[in-house]
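User: I'm putting together notes for a lab meeting next week and I want to include a structural view of one of the chains we've been expressing. I don't have a solved structure, so I'd like a prediction I can at least talk through. The sequence is below, exactly as it appears in our construct file.
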Amino acid sequence: MKIFSLILILYCFTIYKAKAQDDIGNNRREKKVLKLINSLPEVKRASRYIIKHSDCKRVLKAFIQNTPTQQQNYYLVSVSEFNGMNLVSHYWFEVDAATYVIRYYDIIDNKLTPLKEWQKHPRGVYSK
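Assistant: Thanks for the context. Below is the predicted structure for the 128-residue chain, given as structure tokens.
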């Protein structure tokens, strides 16, 4: 029974890893999307904050959560830190696959905001 449990756990872990987020990009388009998100001033500022307050133990990175489909032509990207046990998301964005237009995704209100509008309003400890 222990062997069966171990095999089941390893199998589940393998499936989880296969569907895990990607912070590198599998192709040219994904790399461009990640570069766009990682170069946003808000993401850079938050990244500096996380690095400073974790004594360089944690970093903030963009991860592709979903790729475009026929129904939804956008990348869903989270900006997250790995805290040693979990990925903790700080920001969510949608990036149009055709135009690369970025929209901020508010997961609490389930609302999309154009990037320029979102950038007008300071957010939390990462504000200027």
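A couple of points you could mention at the meeting. The longest strand covers residues 87-96. The chain has four helices and five strands.

User: Perfect, that's what I needed.
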